[in-house]
Design goal:
mainly alpha; two-stranded antiparallel sheet; two-stranded antiparallel ribbon; about 60% helix
């Protein structure tokens, strides 16, 4: 580790802290304000879309109506994306005449982008046409992020609004939340930063691929396409799908240090800002800062661990007579180095982004453990757009319940009592995640059609399987790339895992929002556990780590932890 590396990391975190308040205020004004900003410009587009969808006077929805709208919207988007892929050979904007992906790959990809996962079992530049990239995949980058924002807002409204406030038991309107997310937040930021990335050299065109001859006389194909426009929303919406197979390690997606910084800021800015937005909705800004503090503690621990691990020589190459002064550079871009690779890996898996500028499969065992643990904690380190906030709030409610038992008082959060029903919903939310990850991982580790896709045996092979299903259930999309996931079994089982990880976890969240919405706050008493200080932030962090350890530590012990000790013993599988 170097001082220069730490200065870059600290600078990045300070910029995120500076962005949090103004962006959080803007988000609060967009979704909760009496009048939205930029009414004469963006407001025109919003009103047009509301009229187009028949929502001139949108009514508030209860949790069942909001959830039904979410599921219907997602199913229709999934079907359209599947159809675009299967018909891309007869649709326009396919200059390379790319054939349609197989049925199981098209299913996996449609599910992946609908669920904000953006797991890719294919090479984008050799599989997807320009139209598929834009109308299918980039479209979902906007809508899936907007849907996640909507669910987070619904839960925040359920926790902060009183029964007689505004719309009785309503949680807002899903269609309005989605439209406002796109019109006021995702689209304008994407336009501005697309132009900025183009200025850095990110490709943006509709030209056919370049077929050239190198100086050595070899034929080479240089892929092109509308990259910059997809690059921004993939980071901003914490989607993560790359236009190219190498993702943000590709120089056409991420060519300069400034582009690298911009893309990392885009990944973390909305998840961080939503904590401030929640504080405003709660009428107590300290509540938002406490959640931000818990997230910051976890991300700092991850960055420190990953950076320390990757600053050491490669666990495999360390015995060779090479210069290891730069640390483990296998699978990393020289222009980013260890510090920015470790930082990116931590924030992209702390959120549900999954974009990469280095190959996680090449990290040292403990360095690779950090992204895996980040996902398995529920991606609440900062979490995806919306998903991070509602995931953290579910852990907050669990922490409050535990604190209430400690002080011998009925648990309360923001003055609302947390009772048996809410705890059942919280535990359902928490248990679904390890059930699908560990269940499918166990299945794939003993079935021939699962293990046949592995390129590595032993602990690292198990880590690849565990990482794949963790990434799918956590709607992350990054991978230990030694696994060939483009088979009927992997495409289908991963698709099912993504659906469970997205919607079967959103349903308990929406039910929690509905349950808490109808409760009347009670005044705080002398036995009320405060939820706005560092003590509470520490309790939340402890609960998250304990739940993660209880569910995943045995599997992690057989994977990256065992690999660490095996490597230090000088053995390689």
């Amino acid at each position: 580790m170097t001082i220069n590396g730490w200065l870059q990391i600290v600078f990045f975190l300070l910029v995120i802290l500076v962005i949090t308040k103004p962006l959080g205020l803007y988000l609060h004004r967009v979704f909760e304000g009496e009048k939205q900003p930029f009414r004469r410009t963006l407001g025109v587009l919003e009103r047009f879309l509301l009229r187009l969808t028949g929502l001139r006077r949108p009514a508030a929805q209860d949790w069942k109506q909001y959830t039904a709208s979410l599921l219907l919207f997602s199913v229709l988007g999934l079907l359209v994306t599947y159809a675009i892929q299967r018909l891309q050979h007869v649709l326009p904007f396919n200059p390379e005449k790319l054939a349609p992906p197989s049925e199981h790959l098209a299913f996996n990809t449609a599910v992946s982008f609908t669920t904000n996962t953006n797991w890719q079992s294919y090479s984008g530049e050799t599989t997807m046409s320009y139209l598929t990239q834009m109308a299918g995949l980039a479209w979902h980058n906007f809508t899936s992020a907007a849907a996640g924002l909507g669910v987070a807002l619904a839960l925040a409204r359920g926790l902060t609004r009183k029964p007689d406030e505004k719309d009785d038991k309503g949680l807002g309107n899903f269609w309005v939340d989605v439209i406002r997310s796109i019109v006021y937040v995702l689209l304008p930021i994407s336009v501005i930063f697309t132009l900025l990335l183009v200025s850095q050299g990110v490709v943006q065109n509709f030209a056919p691929y370049l077929h050239v001859t190198t100086l050595e006389g070899a034929a080479q194909v240089i892929p092109l396409g509308p990259v910059a426009s997809q690059e921004v929303i993939k980071e901003l919406g914490t989607n993560g799908g790359g236009f190219f197979n190498a993702n943000s390690a590709h120089p056409f997606e991420n060519p300069t240090p400034l582009a690298n910084l911009i893309e990392m800021l885009l990944i973390l800015c909305i998840p961080a800002a939503l904590t401030y937005t929640f504080g405003r909705m709660a009428g107590n800004q300290k509540q938002g800062w406490a959640i931000l503090a818990a997230m910051a503690i976890l991300v700092l621990a991850g960055i420190t661990t990953a950076y320390a691990s990757e600053s050491s020589p490669s666990a495999v190459m360390g015995a060779f007579p090479l210069d290891h002064g730069l640390g483990n550079m296998e699978g990393k871009e020289a222009r980013f180095g260890v510090a920015n690779s470790a930082l990116w890996a931590t924030i992209t898996t702390g959120t549900s982004c999954g974009a990469v500028n280095a190959m996680h499969d090449s990290f040292n065992p403990i360095g690779g453990l950090v992204p895996l643990v980040n996902i398995e904690l529920g991606e609440v380190v900062f979490g995806g757009v919306g998903a991070g906030l509602f995931g953290m709030l579910m852990f907050v409610l669990l922490s409050v319940f535990i604190a209430g038992l400690m002080v011998g008082r009925t648990p309360e959060y923001l003055g609302k009592k947390i009772e048996g029903k809410e705890m059942k919903l919280a535990m359902l939310y928490i248990l679904i995640f390890p059930l699908v990850i560990l269940g499918f991982s166990a299945w794939s580790s003993v079935a021939g059609y699962g293990t046949s896709s592995l390129n590595n045996a032993g602990p690292h092979g198990l880590s690849e399987i565990l990482y794949a299903y963790s990434s799918a259930a956590g709607n992350n999309g990054s991978a230990f790339a030694g696994l060939n996931a483009n088979t009927p079994w992997w495409d289908t089982s991963m698709g099912i895992t993504m659906l469970f990880g997205r919607f079967f976890m959103m349903i308990p969240v929406m039910a929690m929002a509905g349950s808490m919405r109808g409760k009347r706050p009670v005044p705080a008493g002398p036995g009320t556990f405060p939820t706005h200080g560092l003590l509470f932030s520490g309790l939340v962090v402890s609960v998250i780590l304990i739940v993660g350890a209880l569910t995943f530590f045995p599997a992690l012990s057989l994977g990256p932890i065992a690999e660490h000790f095996v490597a230090h013993a000088g053995k390689v599988f």
